[in-house]
Amino acid sequence: MTLYSIAESPLGDLLLVGEASATARSGVALTSLSMPGQKGAPVVEDDWRRDDEVFSDVARQLRAYFNGSAKTFELEFAPTGTEFQQRVWDALDDIPYGTTTTYGHLADQLGVERAEVRAVGAAIGANPLLVVRPCHRVVGADGSMRGYAGGVPRKQDLLIHEGALQPVLI
Question: Long-range CB contacts (< 8 A, 24+ apart) of 121-126?
């Protein structure tokens, strides 16, 4: 059964979606975390059931992240994707808080040919677990902010929050 909840955040209300899991500490394996206006975000279906309690640990960890008292997440994920996408998404977990990496560097780490860097970017763009799987930490080779499903301004906000990017003062 698909379960969902809404978690408030500085980025707007986050839609948490998951499947009941007997092995997950919280009782749910997260399949999606999306933001308002996100490209390709899931929409609550009629047969989904809202269960704020089962997502309470996810919401607690998100609050800790946004208030600066946590830098990592300890959650069970169950996203659907190709084997290649899963490899890329797993690699995102290794990018430390407060740092960035480039698409090319990530491709090198994965043993992907330079000609296939776009495939890495496409897999990152399909990441269904924004914030908790830190695709926002991947930037262009020149340090530029490339696309982000939640919008480039939110990517910048997350990087500023983590101290990986300085705010622009006008």
Answer: 121/146, 123/81, 123/82, 123/84, 123/85, 123/87, 123/88, 123/89, 124/88, 124/92, 125/149, 126/40, 126/81, 126/85
Q: Measure Cα distances from 13 to 10, 31, 123, 135, 163 in Å.
A: 8, 17, 24, 19, 23
In a domain, 71, yes or no: no
Domain ranges, residue 22: 2-66
Question: pTM of this prediction?
Answer: 0.93
On average, the pLDDT of the chain sits at 94
The tens digit of pLDDT for each residue in 60-98 reads 999 999 999 999 999 999 989 999 999 999 999 999 999
CA separation for the pair 79, 142 (Å, rounded): 30
135 tagged catalytic: yes
Q: Are residues 60 and 8 in the same domain?
A: yes
Q: What is the mean pLDDT of residues 118-134?
A: 96
- Tell me how far the alpha carbon of residue 138 is from its chain's centroid: 11
- Nearest-10 Cα torsion for 149, 152, 157, 162: 70
| Choice among 30, 35, 135, 165 that is catalytic | 135
Do 145 and 99 share a structural domain? yes
